[in-house]
């Protein structure tokens, strides 16, 4: 596997999606890997753009057929994973793939790709600010919000397993810090 990957993770609401969007505008060699998930599509999302939305039975079949590079059951009954076919498609185009995935998936990918992978953890300024970001999103009920916050505490403890940690208390600085890390790694 001589193809390069960049792995970016943060708790839900930590800003990874926004930062990745800015990275894609900055460097056209970078592309995101579209993950597969069993979760419901959210308002404004599109099949094949945000995720490949797959029912649980089909997802489990893909696991059995070894069609996934990695996968995790992040929340009870909700799977996320990376289709091997998606990676091959992007590498054939000569792209560097950015993964936007959870902490456990990030650690597993880093083990698989070793020096061909750069892992970056986007750290929220505080759990209080993270909670407010999630609440303001309006896509979570109270139980889901509490589950995401419990997960966030775990993910923040796991940040030590990443090559770099970027604090997202100022979006512009966080984007610039991430660009600098990537530039140094690519050169």
Concise synopsis of the structure shown:
With 187 residues, the chain is of the alpha/beta class.
List keywords for this structure.
4-stranded mixed beta sheet, Rossmann fold, globular, 187 residues, 24% strand, alpha/beta, 5-stranded parallel beta sheet
Explain the overall architecture.
There is one protein chain. This protein is an alpha/beta fold and 187 residues long. The strands form two sheets. It has a five-stranded parallel β-sheet, with helices on both faces. Strands 4-3-6-5 form a four-stranded mixed β-sheet. Helix content is 44%, strand content 24%. It has one domain (5-186): P-loop containing nucleotide triphosphate hydrolases (Rossmann fold, 3-Layer(aba) Sandwich). The protein has helices at 16-26, 56-64, 84-92, 103-113, 127-137, 142-157, 171-186; strands at residues 5-9, 30-32, 35-37, 51-53, 68-75, 78-83, 96-100, 117-123, 164-167. The protein has seven helices and nine strands; from the N terminus they run βαβββαββαβαβααβα. The longest helix is centred in the last third of the chain and has 16 residues, at 142-157.
**Gross CATH architecture:** 3-Layer(aba) Sandwich
Count of individual domains? 1
- CATH topology tier name: Rossmann fold
**SS-derived structural category:** alpha/beta
In total, the number of strands is 9
Mind telling me the C-alpha Rg?
16 Å
Can you identify the CATH class?
Alpha Beta
CATH superfamily: P-loop containing nucleotide triphosphate hydrolases
Mean pLDDT: 92
In spatial order, strands of the major sheet run: 2-7-1-8-9
Order of helices and strands: EHEEEHEEHEHEHHEH
- The helix tally amounts to 7
């Amino acid at each position: 596997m001589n193809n390069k990957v960049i792995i970016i993770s943060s708790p839900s609401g930590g800003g990874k999606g926004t930062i990745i969007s800015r990275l894609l505008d900055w460097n056209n060699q970078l592309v995101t890997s579209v993950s597969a998930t069993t979760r419901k599509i959210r308002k404004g999302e599109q099949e094949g753009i945000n995720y490949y939305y797959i029912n649980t039975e089909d997802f489990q079949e893909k696991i059995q057929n070894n069609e996934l590079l990695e996968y995790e059951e992040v929340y009870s009954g909700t799977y996320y994973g990376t289709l091997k076919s998606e990676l091959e498609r992007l590498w054939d185009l000569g792209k560097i793939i950015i993964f936007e995935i959870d902490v456990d998936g990030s650690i597993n990918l880093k083990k698989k790709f070793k020096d061909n992978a750069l892992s970056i953890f986007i750290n929220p300024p505080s759990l209080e600010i993270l909670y407010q970001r999630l609440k303001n999103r309006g896509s979570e009920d109270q139980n889901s919000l509490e589950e995401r916050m419990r997960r966030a505490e775990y993910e923040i403890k796991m940040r030590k397993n990443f090559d770099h940690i970027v604090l997202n208390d100022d979006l512009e600085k966080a984007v610039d810090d991430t660009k600098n890390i990537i530039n140094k790694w690519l050169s």
